[in-house]
Amino acid sequence: MNPAQAPVRRPELRTALPGPRSAEVLRRDRAALATCYTRPFPLVPDRGQGVWLSDLDGNTFLDFMAGIAVSTTGYHHPHVAAAIADQVGRFLHICLTDYAQEGTTQLAERLLAHLPGDRYRAFFGNSGAEAVEAAIKLARHHTGRPYLISTLGSFHGRTYGAVSLTGSKANYRRGFGPLLSGVVHVPYPNPFRPPLGSNPESCGRAVLDYLERELFPTVLPPDEVAAILVEPMQGEGGYIVPPSDFLPGLRALCDRYGILLILDEVQTGMGRSGKMFAFEHDQIQPDMVTLAKGIASGLPLSAMLARERLMTWPEGSHGSTFGGNPVAVAAASATLDLLEGGALHPGLGTSLIDNARIQGEWMLAELRRLAADFPAVGQVRGRGLFLGIEFVSADGAEDPAVRDRFAEAAFRLGLLTLPCGYSSLRISPPLILNRQEAEVGLELIAAALRAVS
């Protein structure tokens, strides 16, 4: 059959949700697992293929969340699966802290080749939080300065140092204090809801002015600030794209005061924005970059990349038993193959980075056209396959209730999404999404909007 004539795949829901097998696992889950786990939808995955995920009862969903932007190459990509199997056949683990490994060295070299300007070095961990912890330690160690700046709405992890910089939900911090000292949060420049009395065009400058004219002269000596940690596009805070002058302005401000600029690319990196790293859209050079989530297509791996001149911590001062695990590294190398070139995924005919840009531009335009007919959608925003939908009430205020009703309606139609921010929804499918699958997703989004309008 000609691929152009192949039937378009759609979600297939065979049972009420959850089905009986899923419901039984959910019952046991509630009894056996820690109470901190959230369960936004009654989904118990059983197997996946491409951008499709099936539960224990045979219900098949179109995945527009990719495990929080983790499953870069979709489910069971043959190139990634083969790389994992090959490494499993060699050995599962040798501690990178003690022993060099060819695969890890090659992965570091490939990642560093994507960074501009100066030479960098890589430290490997298991998760985004661990990469952030490494960046915090290195920044303080290298500069000898105590203070750190983060942003409101940010998410950097939930370990003690990382959650101290996280600014998206009070629930992440409640009951765990005192947290890391010396951390100050400032507004993130959200053009849809501009902070500090600014407007969409000036909100980036307003945040920079707040730092330089308010905080620095009064309560935060700039010569005691080790680093500013910021997401180039804010993820958990609502999938927000800042104005184009913000990151260049922040880079200049850091340079004036000898402050390190750490970019958290855990959710925005590895091709999701249509470039390898989201900061490339603004043509700046970071001092450090943190990576995780999509780096290894679902296996636990993270990286903290820092300019070589900053790597002044001595041997043994930091490490990780499982960081840079060879099986996860093999998956990451295979993921990079697909991100950088299209030959291994002939169904797209392009690299996954280019595909994220192409499909994302089309989806953003289509979602904005769709939103014009639904007053409950206040804004559609994003880059590449990092897209956010913000829901509002009749008076334009944030409306998390209608957002949650939409997400539930989408789930019942067979589309997986995830909330973010106070009243926003993230669209972050695997980067292998093709046009037919994107069209099906848009149809389901339109149906869910009609259901809650």
Account of the protein in words:
The chain has twelve helices and 15 strands. The protein is of the alpha/beta class and 453 residues long. The radius of gyration is 22 Å and the shape is globular.
* Amount of helix: 25-40%
User: In the CATH hierarchy, what is the superfamily of the largest domain?
Assistant: Type I PLP-dependent aspartate aminotransferase-like (Major domain)
- Radius of gyration, CA atoms, in whole angstroms: 22 Å
CATH fold label of the largest domain = Aspartate Aminotransferase, domain 2
Q: With helices defined by DSSP (H or I, 4 residues minimum), what is the helix count?
A: 12
Give the class from helix and strand content and strand pairing. alpha/beta
* CATH level-1 class of the largest domain: Alpha Beta
User: Helices and strands, in N-to-C order?
Assistant: HEEEHHHEHEHEHEHEEEHHEEHEEEH
What strand order characterises the main sheet?
A: 4-10-9-8-7-5-6
Query: What is the architecture of the largest domain at the second tier of CATH?
Result: 3-Layer(aba) Sandwich
Low-confidence stretches: none
Terminal Cα span: 40 Å
Tell me the domain tally: 2
